[in-house]
Amino acid sequence: MPPLNPNSATAPSPDLKVGAAAMGEVWFAEEVRPHEAALRGHLRQAFPAVRDVDDIVQESYLRAWNTRAVEPIKSVRAFLFTVARRLALNTIARQKTAGTDFVGDMAALPVLTDGPGVAEHVSRQETLSLLVEALATLPPRCREITVLRKLKNIPQRQVAAQLGLSEKTVEEQVARGMRRCQEFLRRRGVSCFEEKP
Predict the structure, then answer these.
(1) What is the pLDDT of residue 191?
(2) Which of 14, 138, 152, 173 is most buried, with most CB under 10 Å away?
(3) What is the structure's pLDDT at 94?
(4) Alpha helices of the chain — where are they, by DSSP H?
């Protein structure tokens, strides 16, 4: 096949290439960079076990840039926070199981609409997913009692009567369940879940 003639209609002009690159830089400066401080703050607060937040932020930028090159991103902020959260969780998992390298498929991530509180909402959703995993690790009776007391907010006396247990047993099982859930979350670098008195 003969080489393309740079003057032909099928070859992109150098001016178009430069223009596209400049537009990409403008997009990055206007749509991505403004979220940097919030993203760093969120990662430091939600994932204290992550040692190098800078790496996660840079990798999130790179994935946003590469994704935008293929398709539009509806909400850059939501995309960045979702990617960063997944990267942080993968980093924590890698630290715990040295030698295992897992990175999820970022192209399959759902993109949320941007708006007030999106990052907080996504963070709560991620914490809730981890809490469900934590509850699943509890012994069946302990899990049942903890869910009734803490998630369904049923009074201790009513839980005891419903399950045919003493109130003291219910209290002990709830304390044990909450302690195990907190330890589960802490091991995964999440410190935002604390038992309320």
Answers:
(1) 66
(2) 173
(3) 77
(4) 14-27, 36-46, 53-70, 76-96, 118-136, 140-146, 156-163, 167-187
- Tokens representing residue 184 in the block: 């589960």
- Which pair of structure tokens corresponds to residue 193? 């879940």
Rounded distance, CA 150 to CA 18, Å?
58
CA 166 to chain centre: 40
Residue 144, number of CB atoms within 10 A of its CB: 17
Q: What is the pLDDT of residues 104-124, one digit of tens each?
A: 555 555 555 555 565 566 667
**Residue partners of 86: CB distance under 8 A and separation at least 6:** 104, 106, 109
CA distance between the termini of the chain? 76
Burial of 91 (0-12, 13-18, 19+ CB in 10 A): buried
| Residue 146, number of CB atoms within 10 A of its CB | 24
Q: Can you read off the two tokens belonging to residue 126?
A: 């991620």
Concatenate the DSSP letters of all residues of 56-68 into one string: HHHHHHHHHHHHH
Task: Read off φ and ψ for residue 105, nearest 5 degrees.
Answer: -80, 100
Count of C-beta atoms within a 10 Å radius of residue 150: 17
Which sign, positive or negative, has the C-alpha torsion 31, 123, 110, 184?
positive
**Residue that is written with structure tokens 């935002």 in the block:** 192
Angstrom distance (rounded) from CA 92 to CA 95? 5
